[in-house]
Design goal:
By secondary structure, this protein is of the alpha+beta class. The protein folds into three domains: 31 residues, no CATH class; 113 residues, Thiol:disulfide interchange protein DsbD, N-terminal domain (Immunoglobulin-like), CATH 2.60.40; 48 residues. It is built from four helices and eleven strands. The strands form three sheets. A four-stranded antiparallel sheet has the order 1-2-8-5, with no helix packed on it. A four-stranded antiparallel sheet has the order 6-7-3-10, with no helix packed on it. A three-stranded antiparallel sheet has the order 4-9-11, with no helix packed on it. The longest helix has 42 residues. About 15% of the residues have low confidence.
Amino acid sequence: MPISIPMPPRRELLLSGIVSIRERRRHFPTGGARMPMRMLLPLVLIATAELLALDFGLGGPPPAPQVSAAVRDGRIEVTYRVPAGYHMVRQEEFLTFASNTAGYRVGQVEYPAGKRGASGEEEYVGEVTLAAPLERTVPPEKASKTLAIKAQWQMCDEEGTCFVPAEVTLQIAVDPAAIPEAGGAKAEPTAGTAPSARTPGVSAERAASPARSGAAASFWLMLVFALAGGAILNLMPCVLPVLSIKALGLVRDASERGRILKG
């Protein structure tokens, strides 16, 4: 025997639907259009990361060259071994090296001749060595025995695409005494030259007395000029009326005082 279930009227169904929607909005006030955006934001971030990780034919990050450095005969040499399929362009702002160690100074970097590329610039392939003079700016006993060299480069592929410049810091063991001193070595004073070494001090002390006497003479001379200038200003015609006015004022004050005393 079929069982008939009484269906609620359509009006009651609509009211129940409205009530359910209101209940959802009351419990989830940030629902509606905001909830999907919150759920979409992580997906967008994940998709962006995936897109950044893809290779769009730009060659990707190139392999770094093998870089080594050595000091020979007062010169520092930095050698780059460029991987196959890549080259480096002779650009002094990107392909260079410098010292990060206090007490040492690297001179101007010397570049060997490279082959002319399609862009008209010199290119280096395979192995290339840059060199520069190295000088010591402090005494040997104060200089470090380890030299830090920061080598820089920029790799380019065969299609002419150049990548972001990179760098590496190399640590080199050096003998400070074997590095030429900047400006030439200074001779140490010997026992025979010790008296002459004191001579400049004596002459400096003797020169101090004339300097002090000259300063005193200049002071008195300036004082004389100041007095003479004051006298000239007082005798100028434009100053005389002022002096007469002051004199009349003094006389008037004296007469006023006399009247007060008599009264």
